[in-house]
Write a structure and sequence with these properties.
The structure is a single chain. With 98 residues, this protein is mostly beta strands. 0% of the residues lie in helices and 40% in strands.
């Protein structure tokens, strides 16, 4: 798991929940497909925020878009509005959790 800064959030056409995120992990940028569209009035509020991502997952194609990591959040499984897992203060992108 690594910290990344969300640089861009773009809706994926013909998908009710999916957004395409561009994330800076320090040494590289990756694309992440995340089902966050209905969780916020405007998902673009995530731009510029750091969050925790599963970084070493196999690339996966979702609705024709390659996802190279996975966003971590809490709450969805318990039926509450999901929240990002964010560092307490800014830290370098790519920093590993643990």
């Amino acid at each position: 798991m690594r910290i990344g800064t969300i640089l861009e959030v773009v809706p994926i056409e013909n998908a009710d929940r999916l957004m395409n995120l561009t994330v800076d992990f320090g040494s590289e940028q990756r694309t992440v497909v995340a089902g966050i569209r209905g969780e916020r009035a405007d998902p673009r509020v995530l731009v510029g925020r750091q969050a925790l991502f599963y970084y070493n997952v196999p690339r996966r194609t979702i609705r024709g878009h390659v996802s190279e990591a996975m966003l971590c959040d809490v709450g969805h499984a318990d039926g509450i509005l999901p929240a990002l897992l964010e560092p307490e203060w800014p830290i370098p992108n790519g920093t590993r959790a643990g």
